[in-house]
Structures are given as C-alpha cells and as structure tokens.
Amino acid sequence: MIAKKQVALSVAAVLCLVSPLSQASDIGDLTNYLQIDGQIRSFYFNRLYNSTTMDNQSSFSIGGMLNVKTKPFLGGFSAGVSFFTANDLGANSHAPAFSGKGYYGGAAQTQTDTTLMGASSSINALGQAYLEYAIPKVLSVKVGDQEMNTPWLGQSDGRLLVNTYQGVFAQYSPISDVTFYGLREFRYKSRTSDDYYRDNAYYGAGADAALATTNALGDTIWGGNGTLGKSTTPTSGTLAFGARAAAYGAKASLWYYDFYQFTNMFYGNASYTLKTGLGIEPLVGVQFMREWANNSLLSGSSPEGGTSSKATGYSVNNTTWGVQAGFNYDLMPSILGKGQLTWSYNQMVNHPGSIGSGAAISPFTVGYATDPLYTTDMIRGLVETGPGNAWKVKLTQNLLHKEFLFIAAVGKIDSYYNGNSTYTYADLTYFPRFLKGFSIRNRTELSTGNVNAQNGSGNSFIYERLMLTYAF
Asked: What is the pTM of this model?
C-alpha cells in the first residue's frame, strides 16, 4: 500500500536524526544527575475509500519525544521535562478541503488527513514538566504536566504524539501485586495541540479543519469527536480513583471517574489464566461499565455521531458489559514463540430518552478508539457507534524469538442507530536485532458497512498506518 519511495524517505529521515544522537550519547558527568531517553518517530497515515463521494486522505510526519529526568534528590524527589515535536517536512497540503472521488483501486484525489498532527505543519510543545516524590515499589506522587495511564484517561498512543495531562497522579502499593491509584486532572493536551487547555475530545475546533480554526479556549484540537460547539463552557477536569490486584493467575481492577460536567463512571474488569504448565493456558475475562449524570454538557446531543435518527436526551445513562475467552500457548518455542487466541463480546444497552440512547461518554478516548472495551478495533468501537453489540476474534503471535510480532483480528459491530460494520485487521511489527530500540510497524484494516458514514455510503475502505520508531 505504501510506496517504496515513501518508505525510503522515512528511513533516511529517521537515520539522519538518530546519527547525531548516537554521536552525542557520551554526555559525561551529566549522566550522574540526569536520565535522558526518548523516541524518534516517522508516521505515514492513509485512508483509502471505495467511494464516489469521499476523498482519499493521507499524511506524513516525523518527530518524537525527548525526556529528561533528574536522579533522586532530598530523599526521593525528582523533576522531569519532556519536549514533543512533529513536522510534516512540507509533505502535507494545507489548502482548504475539496470534493472529489477516492477509489483505492484506481486514480484518486487525495487530501491531507488532519488527525495525525492537526492542520498545522509543525507542533512544538513542552509535553511534560513535573515534580515527583517516590519510594521505589511503594509510593509515587507526581504533580504537573505529565503522561497518565489509566483505562479511560491515558496516552491514546496511536499517532505521532501522545496525549498528556496537567494535574496530580498518585499510586500506592502497600503489598506486592496490590496498587491503589488517585488522580486529579485539570487541563488536557491532545496529540495535535501545542499547549494545555480546559477541554477534552468532545470539544470541537470548528467545521473547517483545513483552515485550522480553534475552539473558544484557543485550542486547535483534531481527532476525537468534536460534538460541542465553539462557545462551550470549559470543563473543570477529572477526579478518579482506582485499585488493582493480582494473585494466582487472577487479576482485577476497579475504577471510579468523575469527568466534571460530563459523566460519572464506574468501570471494573477481572480475568483468570489457568497455569497448566502444558503449553496451553486457558483464560477468561469479564468487564462492566456504568455511567450516569443529569446535567452533562452533552445534554440534548448524540455524542457518538452518525445518523440523526437516534433519540437524544438530557441525562447520561450507559450500561456496557463484556466477556472474553481464549488461551495462551507456547507449543513450538523454537519456531513460533508465545501466542494468544481470544474471542470477545461486548454489549452496550439501549436506553431510549438518554443522551445518545445510552451512548458511552468517554471524554479522552472517543474518536481515538483507545478505550479498554474488548471489541474496540483500530478505527472504532461501541464508544464511537453507540448502543449495540460487537464481537472480535484476535490472534497475537511472536515469531523468530520475538523479532516479529504479528496480530490479526476479525470482528463485527451491530449498532442500533449507526448501522453495522465488519472489519479485518492485520498488524506486523519488526524489531531488528542489529539495531536495538528500532522498530517498523504496519497496521492495516479493511472495513465494510456504514458505521459513522466514514466509509462512504456503506462501501468498504482501507485504513493504514506505518510507523518507524527509534527508542533511545
């Protein structure tokens, strides 16, 4: 799918950046006081439509993240900063969008896809700036601009840069395999923003992406859902508490989120893997989510998007559950390596009269397809489509002593109000032994159906991402 000359350009660009870093790896006495690491990334993004009404979309960018953190001082304190950057190197057009035809089997017009890094040609941001106090393996409290990693508020790392948050994050492990979490988020920086704002993925940036308009807070935010108008009141952020435990093959976690002005959420999941010692280990899992709110900023809207036929309401009322079954295996370690095969099912209950007739409200994953539901695929899940059900069969396989990682999946989403879709997904990552930290990953999905009208009047379309990464 990706032209050879594009791959060559990407490799060359990465190597040009890697070389100076390699030569500068000896920073002398600074290593006694600082920890320095990061990533360099090159990303190609393509949507190829079999449609007479949808334009093909593609974009290219190169960039990465540089992290600098002090060694502990004053009995456990440390400070860290991260610089994020992305640049399209003049490869993307920023002219206004046009109407045309996009056939992945023939000649096609192509416009820039703004979900990779927005409508600008570069992003330069202070992604992290925090102070941390830590007791190794027991306690960590981090204050400031930072990455957070929880089921419904996390990095959403599916493009060039990651989402980050301004706030406080704490975790405490009184005993091994038991951890408690607490967070208070005040501001949010999406993958396409250059600063922190009191918004989330439901805040729109304006109708014309090509002209780089901003929402009322000044944020040029792309991706997400964009349901809310430009004059929407800023959000006060998020309060959340969680707990996780593991013992004898069983794992469980519980989370409560208060997404201020949006929804209250309870989420739990549990799994069990039977350790047989015979090369095959059966596993089962369950998950459950419940949401409620009476005065959400989304009241009267249908935040999952799509057609206008679904009911709207003034309260949040969501119930979602899921089950999973499968097994881990390690039958031919010298050839295949470890693998996993699972079948998953999710049901989102229809609640007429509520927002989106029972839609899930997820301020930091909607439109990103990075939520923890079992059946969410690369493009979308029930969070994006609204009430209905979905199933997925997924294979994960290590190859050649973990030099390759292959993932394949097939699935279907049946929604009450946004149509149905099926998908076939393939994901291959190569970790060359001769260059530690370097990887090449290609993700491709063929989708058919009429979910969110993304694929143009129910026709199929191909969605592809190629990422080259060097972690140093």
From this structure: 0.88
Cα separation, 365 vs 41, whole angstroms? 22
Taking residue 200's Cβ as centre, other Cβ atoms within 10 Å add up to 28
Query: Six-digit token pair at 306?
Result: 């799509």
Torsion-angle region of 318 (φ positive above 0: left; ψ -120 to 50: alpha; else: beta): beta
Residue 299's pLDDT is 87
Q: How far apart are CA 384 and CA 382, in angstroms?
A: 5
Query: Residue 66: helix, strand or coil by DSSP?
Result: strand
| Cβ atoms 376, 409 nearer than 8 A | no
Cα gap 390→369, rounded to integer Å:
14
Residue in 234, 242, 256, 151 with CA at minimum distance from that of residue 186: 234
Q: Which residues have a Cβ under 8 Å from the Cβ of 421 and sit 6 or more positions away?
A: 380, 412, 413, 447, 448, 449, 450, 451, 455
User: Burial of 343 by CB count in 10 Å (0-12 exposed, 13-18 middle, 19+ buried)?
Assistant: middle
Cβ–Cβ < 8 Å for 82, 67? yes
**C-alpha 104 chain-centroid distance:** 26
Could you say which DSSP state residue 9 is in? H
pLDDT digits (tens, 9 = 90+) for 243-261: 999 999 999 999 999 999 9
In the chain, what is the straight-line distance between the N-terminal and C-terminal CA atoms, in Å? 29
CB contact at 8 A, 161 and 117: yes
* Burial readout 226-262 (b: 16 or more C-beta within 10 A, e: otherwise): bbbeeebeebebbbbebbbeeeeeeeebebebbbbbb
Distance CA 360, CA 187 (A): 22
Question: Which parts of 118-259 fold into alpha helices (H)?
Answer: none
Cα 15 to chain center, whole Å? 26
For 443, half-sphere exposure in the C-beta direction (CA atoms, 13 angstrom radius) is: 16
What CA–CA distance (Å, rounded) separates 101 from 110? 9
For the chain, residues with pLDDT lower than 50 are 1-26, 96-108, 206-212, 306-308, 452-456
Q: Report the distance separating Cα 392 and Cα 326, nearest Å.
A: 12
Alpha carbon 353 to chain centroid, angstroms? 30
What is the Cβ-side half-sphere exposure of residue 72, based on CA atoms within 13 angstroms?
Answer: 8
Cα-Cα-Cα-Cα torsion 198, 199, 200, 202, nearest 10 degrees, comes to: 160
CA distances, 439 to each of 317, 403, 404 (Å) = 42, 10, 10
pLDDT of residue 451: 55
CA dist list (Å): 448 to 97, 414, 458: 24, 12, 7
* 28 in Cβ contact with 37 (< 8 Å): no
